[in-house]
Structures are given as structure tokens and as C-alpha cells.
Amino acid sequence: MTLYQKLQTSKSEEDVKDAYIKALGLKGYSKNLIDIQTKEIWFEAKESGKVSTYAMFTQLMHYVQAALNQGEYIPPFLAVIDTQKAAIMKSADVIPFLAKKTIRWGKSASSYTQEALDAISAHIGTHFVSFKIETHEEEFIQTVKNAIRSGDIIRTQITPNNLKQVFDKWVQMIGMEIKGVAEEDYALLFFADIMNDGTVSTHDHLPAELMHKNNAPVFLLAGKVYELSNKEGYRQFWAIYHRPPKEEYRDYLLERRDSLIPLDERSFKGAYYTPLAVVDKAYDKLTETLGEHWQKEYIVWDMCCGVGNLEVKHNNPRNIYMSTLDQADVDVMKATKTCVGAQRFQYDYLNDDITADGRIDYSLTNKVPESLRMAIAQGKKILVLINPPYAESGDTLGSEAKSDVAKTKVAANMKDYSYATRELFTQFLARISIEMPLAFIAMFGTLKYVIAPNFEKFREVWNAKYLGGFVVHNRAFDGLNGNFPIGFLIWKTDQQNRSKIVLTEITAEVLNKSANPTGEKTFYNFSQKRSLNAWIKRPSPNQISVIPLKNSLLISAKS
After folding, report:
1. Which of 108, 146, 435, 473 is the most exposed place for a label (fewest CB within 10 A)?
2. Between the CA of residue 123 and those of 57, 376, 395, 414, 473, what are the distances in Å?
């Protein structure tokens, strides 16, 4: 019979005590004013589940206060138990508070005052770990046994491996209780919460901040204070998890904000984290292609840098300009001290500083640093290093399609690019071709712009010489489904039309999901006219009975 089953048959408080004593395997215990006493732990027990955990701990604290006043022994742990629930906490978390002797207790432990209940509840809220016995009796039993054996209550660490699971639980237990906050801001508040020991933040200048108001946690974001509608979920969450995360994980966890952004928003913004193993391969390929000293010789602009992980390998940050759509990303980079010497700024590359007729006018926003403007104007060697969004608009792409994703100022002026106007990453290339017509480009992206028939018109307009690169399995990137290659391809562009560069094929190194090389692959650019599914000319309507072909391969669904 399980502990829970045994508790449901109990008829008195003594039955409850005995059930827990047996389940926990307690040795050397006694039953006195304190319901169960051992050298390691004191228990307050109730015969039903009607008394709150806070009230039971308040009664138990009455005895702890008395022992403290008389200089008597206090065990390392305190626990409360009944037929439905149980909780445990470390005595060390409450002794300094009780030592102040500011609480007005009642005449007895069971006759506690409301003032005592309120004071104890406010203090112990994040210190005890609670369990619902019906569903988590094994966890409770193991936690108590581990505490007795190790001398500590072992809370779960937040690591890169469980970040998403912890975030999902945080949203369920805390995020949904924050009044008035938008779903897309959950990740910012989550990081403000976990990067705080309850009093002090691990990082300065995070986009959001954890604060306290009337002894309750509140969040500050963009100058607005957000309060919790229910604090119990907050207490329960931080009774399970340890905060802040270990120091070696902190910056990396902040850099993974992209993985916590809602999928629709992430697809629109292209917030897909570039794994550091892939970044290493990209820098190796740049050195192989552009020369050993490329980091000194080239000005680098990443206009969709996210939180900057594509630049963390660069050894000359003074040559780097990093812009991103979200100001929150800039704040995270500053908090984590990512590329401190670089120029980091918020900028909407597909909309900012673009006039109605498609010209670039930096005075419209004055966001682009003057030094970068001068480098562009003077024709300095500029490398655009980007992992841009892969989102495409259209009505035939299913749930992933975004009907408004291509409605940018850049797209409004891409009259010569045909179908490629729908794709965000080719919009970046279109603006770059106007703004920096002789730039070098090192870009992560799908291979549509190299081989897809619908992008043939784009290839006729965009003039660039292929210098080298690799393709890597898309599963190396979190959040990308399916099975397809992502290319990191390096180009020397020439949009001044000195001579048309005909792209017939490219050969790239192949990397697997672990970013290890497995060979080479050649990709060919064939004219759409040579495609097998397009060579039959559709006949004019007539009275002759024929097979209704949609193209050379498919029969039309409509006769």
C-alpha cells in the first residue's frame, strides 16, 4: 500500500504520523509537543488536508522560537505533513528571522495570531518545497531521505539542457499569473527572474528587472510594473528550482533567448540561434577564403545579429557593427558584455532609412553610427556577416506562411526580383546591393537563391561571385523542422554591373548535424525552361478529349 493510500484510511493524527514514519523509514524518533522529532528533522502533523501549509509551519515555528530562546537544539530541517500534502524546509532559512524576536506569538502553538501567520508566511514563501502526496509521494520521500543523508535540500539546477522545459513550467506557474503582460515578453521576465537570487541580479541592465513591492515579487519592463495575480505558483516554482543558474551557464542561457520566443514571432524575426560549433566552422571558412588577417582588414556589419553569438569568435570587436530588430537583444548583449568594443544598436534593416523611391537616407532615423556611414561612403572593405530570417510569405505554404512577412519598405522597391520578393533573406540581399554594391557577404541561408527555379529572376539581377562555403544539416539549428541544408556561402558582390557573373554551379563542403565534415556537394543552377515539369506547352481549350495535364508530370485535379 502506498503512503497516499495509507493516509486515506487514517482515522486520527496518530495514524498520519505512523504512516509517514514508516514511509520515510525514520529512526530514533519521538512524539511529543512536536508531533515527530528526530535528530535531523521536526514534523508538524495534521489529520486532514484542511489546514494550509503556511499555518502548519507557523505552528511548528512556535516550537522553534521557544527552542531558540532557550538555547536548545534545533534540527537542520523542518517539515509539515497531512493526508494530502507535505513540505520541507531548512531551519537555517528561518532561524536568522526568528532570532530578531519580532513576532507576537499566541498563547500556544495552535493558538497562533494572524500577525504571526502573516509574518511567517511572508518570510518562508520561497524557502519550503511542497509536494502533493497523491501525485508526488515518491519525490517527497526521496527529498527527505536525501536531506537527511546530505544535509541539504537539493533543488533542480537550471541548465542549457533543461532551459526550455523550465521556461514552459515558469510560464504555466508564474508567467500566466503576471497581470497584463504580453506573451512575447515572457522570456524577458523569465530571465529577469532566474538571473536573480531573490535579492540581487547577476547581470546589470537586463531588459526586465525583478523587484519587490509589499514583500511580493513584481517585474519592471519598459518602465511599467507588472504584478502577480497569484503568488502561490511563484513560491512553488522557486521551491523546486535553484537560482540563479551556475555562473558558467548564465551568459549562454541569456544568449538562448531565441529558443523561448513564440514560434510565430521567431519565424518572422528569424531568431534562430547559430550553434557555436557551426560558428567555429564559419570562421575557419572565412579565414580560408578571405585570408588569415580578414578580422583586421574588413569592417563587419551583422544587421540581424540577435544576441551576437555570430560575432563572439571575432578577435577585433572594434571592427564590428551589430544591429538587430529588437532593443531587448541589444540590452541582453550589454548585460552579458558580448562584444563590448563593437557598435551595437537597434535597427530595422528592412524598413529603417528607406525613402519612398527606394533610396537609403540615414538621416531618417540617425540610428546608423557615423563611423559606419563613413566606411560605406569611402568604399572600405566591408563584410556582411549574417544569419538572416528564412521566413517566406505566400498563400500556398501552409501554417508556416506569413501573409504579411514580406510587407517591408525594401520589398516595395524590389520590382526586378520577381518571386524572391516574398523571402526575407533575399530582401536583405536586395538592400545590401543598393547600400554596399561591392560588399563581401558571408550568409547563412537556405539554397533557394542559388538553385530554386522561382529565384531565377533574382539570380539574373543579383550579381555575385561565389568564393566558397559549406552546407550544414538544418537540425544543427534549434527550431528548424524538416531535413534540408543550410548554406554558409561567401560571395563577392558587384552590383555596379562591371561584368555579369554567370552562376552555373557551386561546390560546398558538407557538415552533418554535429558540424563535422562528411564530404562535398555540388549544386547546379539550371534555367527554369529546362525543368522537366515545365517543358510541355499547355494547349488552347478545344473539343478534343485528352488527359488533363497540369504540367509534364502531374494530372490536373480539375477536368
Report:
1. 108
2. 11, 59, 56, 61, 51
Report the predicted TM-score, pTM, of the whole model to 2 decimal places. 0.63
Q: Per the structure block, which three cell numbers stand in for 456? A: 531565377
SS3 sequence, 112-145?
Answer: CCHHHHHHHHHHHCCCCEEEEHHHHHHHHHHHHH
Helices first, then strands: H and E counts in the chain: 18, 17
Residue 40 φ then ψ, to 5°:
-100, -25
Coil, strand or helix at 369: coil
Q: Where are the domains of the chain?
A: 3-150, 163-260, 269-530
The residue whose grid cell reads 556611414 is 373
d(CA 391, CA 455): 15
pLDDT value of residue 265: 54
What distance in Å separates the CA atoms of residue 559 and residue 143, rounded to the nearest whole number?
Answer: 69
Distance CA 500, CA 498 (A): 7
- Of 24 and 405, more confident: 24
Cell digits of residue 440: 563581401
Average pLDDT for 364-382: 96
Instruction: Let me know how long the chain is.
Output: 559
The span from the CA of 445 to the CA of 484, in Å, is 11
Q: Quick one: fold of 269-530?
A: Rossmann fold (3.40.50)
DSSP assignment string, 546-557: ---BSSSS-B-S
Rounded to whole angstroms, the Cα distance separating 192 from 133 reads 32
What are the tens digits of pLDDT across the range 414-440?
Answer: 878 888 888 889 999 999 999 999 999
Could you give the CA distance from residue 466 to residue 441 in angstroms, rounded to a whole number? 10
Determine phi and psi for 322, rounding to 5 degrees.
-125, 120
DSSP E strands, 246-401: 299-302, 320-324, 343-346, 382-386
Contact yes or no for 386/304 (Cβ under 8 A):
yes
* Residues 257, 388: Cα–Cα separation, whole Å: 16
Give the mean pLDDT of the chain.
87
Write the DSSP symbol of residue 529.
Answer: G
Percent of the chain with pLDDT over 70: 90
Cis peptide before 244 (omega within 30 of 0): yes
